[in-house]
């Protein structure tokens, strides 16, 4: 049964996400300890978990096979979900990252469809739902995250009519024309509609979702409220769709930028690069959605054209390893590394790079030092739910210096209007935007950065989480169903 067991603890707020917010570390004596992974979602949840008596997180602990027993970390109860090697290959690398991810990012690469992947997606989603349903307190709240778990809202709803269910999609939701390609598309829509509140990054994502429901399921829609017919004699349920642009822990990032050690590190970084006049930075997971190839093409042409002098301008590209077992990512890595090699071979002065390419990750402090050392940050995503790098750069510049070049195709472009906005598909436009950013006078940088900082500092990830949960509390509960079934 999935109803709460009176003898075991239940939680007022249960977060369900693919990954638990912890990583395991092996100690010298062979024992393992869990270290909180410092993502934005974790920070946001820490702030809302403090407002409830009891919070929990359901997710995968990161290693295939037998999961660890439930445990406590940072005042939360963590419930690990089992994923076997085959689930990792079919549910995670397969359906999530080789079917949904490319399809939801405007088919930048071709999505692959395999029925065995779908079966694994269904099975894995069921395990997350089965873990979450019994640990949620009567009348409690469940918050499900992201594209890997789109079937979970309905699966929990079927077990628990008494709980409030919210879902937030961190990536874009595609136009109905593209979404229609997805085999099992209606099951995905119905799965999502098990929630009371569905949150998306941009207004266009919310509108795309509502349009898909209207066209493919034919449900009645009024404004952003969808009427979902009940099964059998069950009454109609109203599901609300709303836009909640995610953000970062702005104050924490800004505080790091005031740390004297980190400021010193930023100066040192520029020195290590040979004290160039200008430093241009890109920070991305190595993902084809991020437009790294377009950025390098523009950069290479600017060097070829002689419009950038590699003796006084250096580009740093941090490309954090990601999804390395998925074919499209292996291919992207090869292409990016070939291009960087060519650019450096042709243009790098002796003893220093034209493009400093970093295929590894940095700690938070080094990331902030990089942002502080950068005169220009290039965010050239071809499609991106939000893009937190754009917001982190802005939060890292209390000195009001630096220029953000930002793709229109990143969700952040809806809010960060004072950035230099570009269409990264237009290489000529991208080249002009880079030159404009490099030449921007200090007063103009300050004016733009002031406006950007106003936006980012006022709207942080804590507000985002509070807004979502507050809205979820206001959504209608199913009449007459206060007890778990
Ligand atoms: C998804 C959506 C949406 C990167 N390299 C290092 C490092 N990072 C950090 C960045 C940033 C985060 O990873 C990446 O966030 P993004 O938003 O840029 O992109 P995705 O990973 O694709 O995230 C996206 C997000 O979900 C949230 O909803 O904005 O659109 O695709 O925080 O700084 N951090 C450290 N070392 C690195 O080397 N410490």
TrEMBL record:
GO terms for biological process: trehalose biosynthetic process. Transmembrane segments: none annotated. Keywords: Glycosyltransferase, Hydrolase, Transferase. Signal peptide: none annotated. Its EC number is 2.4.1.15, 3.1.3.12. GO terms for molecular function: alpha,alpha-trehalose-phosphate synthase (UDP-forming) activity; trehalose-phosphatase activity. In the C-terminal section; belongs to the trehalose phosphatase family. This is Trehalose 6-phosphate synthase/phosphatase. The chain holds residues 4 to 488 of 760 of the full protein.
